């Protein structure tokens, strides 16, 4: 009967064992935090790269349609006057149909979330130099206005 009492009393964990387990879990969580931040940065950079590719492709397609005479050139350079023109649609001169080059303007993932998507980008006009982009009457290129640096060491503004 004494042996049975001993078996029932020794079946749990001690307070020290529980504290050791919690300390180990805390150390593991603290060690994984920088990896989670790095992964978040990587995902935002991929989104930025994809958004720049989409917008620049739409800008090139717009200029190509102007050169073909399919749409009227709203500016001297043949590039659109703003980013909204890519998503709002342009009426084709030959076909008479509305041409949409973007479903919607993608947003800069590093910009303020309260801004509309087309205002999150820095705009470069056709007659603006590449090393000092300035907005103008048309949109020749876009860039991120973030002051951060990518994981590759290149400032996000230069992507």
UniProtKB/TrEMBL annotation:
The chain crosses the membrane at residues 12-36. Keywords: Membrane, Transmembrane, Transmembrane helix. It comes from the Bacteria. Signal peptide: none annotated. Gene3D superfamilies: Glycoprotein, Type 4 Pilin. InterPro entries: N_methyl_site, Pilin-like. The keyword Coiled coil does not apply. NCBIfam families: IV_pilin_GFxxxE. This is Type II secretion system protein G. It comes from Amantichitinum ursilacus.
């Amino acid at each position: 009967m004494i042996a049975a009492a001993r078996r029932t009393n020794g079946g749990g964990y001690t307070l020290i064992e529980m504290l050791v387990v919690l300390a180990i879990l805390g150390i593991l969580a603290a060690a994984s935090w920088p990896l989670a931040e790095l992964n978040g940065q990587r995902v935002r950079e991929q989104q930025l790269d994809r958004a720049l590719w989409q917008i620049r492709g739409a800008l090139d397609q717009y200029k190509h349609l102007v050169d073909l005479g399919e749409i009227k050139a709203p500016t001297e350079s043949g590039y659109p006057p703003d980013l909204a023109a890519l998503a709002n649609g342009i009426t084709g001169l030959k076909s008479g149909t509305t041409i949409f080059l973007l479903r919607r303007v993608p947003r800069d993932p590093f910009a303020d979330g309260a801004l509309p998507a087309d205002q999150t980008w820095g705009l470069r006009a056709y007659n603006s130099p590449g090393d000092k982009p300035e907005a103008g009457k048309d949109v020749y290129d876009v860039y991120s206005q973030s002051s951060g640096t990518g994981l590759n060491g290149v400032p996000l503004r230069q992507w």
